[in-house]
Amino acid sequence: MDCPIKLNQNESPFDIPLYLKEKILQKLKNTKWNIYPEFVPDDLYTKIANYFNLSKTNILVGNGSNEMIFTILAASAEKTKKVVIPTPTFTVYNLISSNLNATIKYVPLNEDFTFNVPAIIEESKTSGSITVLCSPNNPTGTYLTFNEIEKIISSSGGIVIVDEAYIHFGGETVLDLIPKYNNLIILRTFSKAFGLAGLRIGFMISNKDLITELSKVKLPYNLNIFTLITLSEIFDNLSLVEENIKTILSEKKFLASELSKFKDLKVIPSEANFFLIKFFDSNFVFAKLVEDGILIRDYNSYPMLENCLRVSVGSRKENEAFINSLKKIFKYGEKL
Ligand SMILES: Cc1ncc(COP(=O)(O)O)c(C=O)c1O
């Protein structure tokens, strides 16, 4: 769909500045393209481990966290009796589990989109299971507390994946639990807060033994020279990323405050860089937004998400365009 304003994939509204792109391209020009990248890019591992206060032996880096999700599920699918997926959540888990013929046990979220923790614990007890917890969750923006996640990990009979793709915007990280539990894998991505979705880079954090096992399944040379050079430059310019996160968080407040003025929609409280919004007629709203050149994500056909649309927090200009378009569709305080 040809929409100039793209608020449908929870991306950062901020691209890398041109001067930095030029510098990266120059480095790329001076690198040999006919030579494989390092098998294990030590410099990159060191930078990531240092920034997140981890040990290099606790991480495995991939071509987006999507690759890491595939690696974990592919490594375990045969042995895995079931994959426990609270739903609705990030669809890639369902997609990959189905493709691998794993048995999927969906645990619906509660009506207010909070997690049904007792039901997840019950399902996750199965020996050899894999339980997926996106916290903050996509597309709802709801999250699990540290204590809730720890309860699930400690009673699980298998592995628990905690996907923290949106953790820079809210929620509670469980990084501190890595040394305590050998069945925990945390996923992180550079696609959201770091604004590098086009780069395709994400990583997993776990205990050394699991990382060693999963390294054997990961494709060799999965990180290309463009990714390696760019990420290295980003780590030398982290203040840019940190400024952008602050701006996104303040834009999120602006968007929430503007949305709260509309009477005919319901915004789900969100810990992420997006909002799930329930309308009376989401098809009508979606089509009208597209007419105004604004693309958001349509969830109308998903279970539990009838009439729901999800909008990413954009730049001030994009957020204003979205709000102004909604104002044309609805009138503040009046019924449709
Ligand atoms: C919960 C969650 N995990 C992972 C990803 C994908 O991350 P990556 O771009 O690193 O593959 C997304 C992207 O939307 C997501 O919502």
In brief, what are we looking at here?
The protein is an alpha/beta fold. The chain contains 11 helices and 13 strands.
Characterization of the model:
With 336 residues, this protein is α/β, with parallel strands linked by helices. The chain has two domains: 5-12 and 239-329, Aspartate Aminotransferase, domain 1 (Alpha-Beta Complex); 18-237, Aspartate Aminotransferase, domain 2, CATH 3.40.640. Helices cover 38% and strands 16% of the residues. Strands 2-8-7-6-5-3-4 form a seven-stranded mixed sheet, with helices on both faces. A four-stranded antiparallel sheet has the order 9-10-13-12, with helices on one face. The mean pLDDT is 94. It binds pyridoxal-5'-phosphate.
Topology:
Elements: E1 5-6, H1 18-29, H2 42-51, E2 59-62, H3 65-76, E3 83-87, H4 91-99, E4 104-108, H5 117-124, E5 130-134, H6 146-155, E6 159-163, E7 184-189, E8 202-205, H7 208-215, H8 225-235, H9 238-259, E9 265-267, E10 274-279, H10 282-291, E11 294-295, E12 297-298, E13 308-312, H11 316-329
Parallel strand pairs: 1-11, 3-4, 3-5, 5-6, 6-7
Antiparallel strand pairs: 2-8, 7-8, 9-10, 10-13, 12-13
Helix pairs in contact: 1-8, 2-8, 3-4, 5-6, 9-11
Bound molecules: pyridoxal-5'-phosphate.
Residues 10, 64-66, 90, 134, 138, 163, 165, 189, 191, 197, 202 line the site of pyridoxal-5'-phosphate.
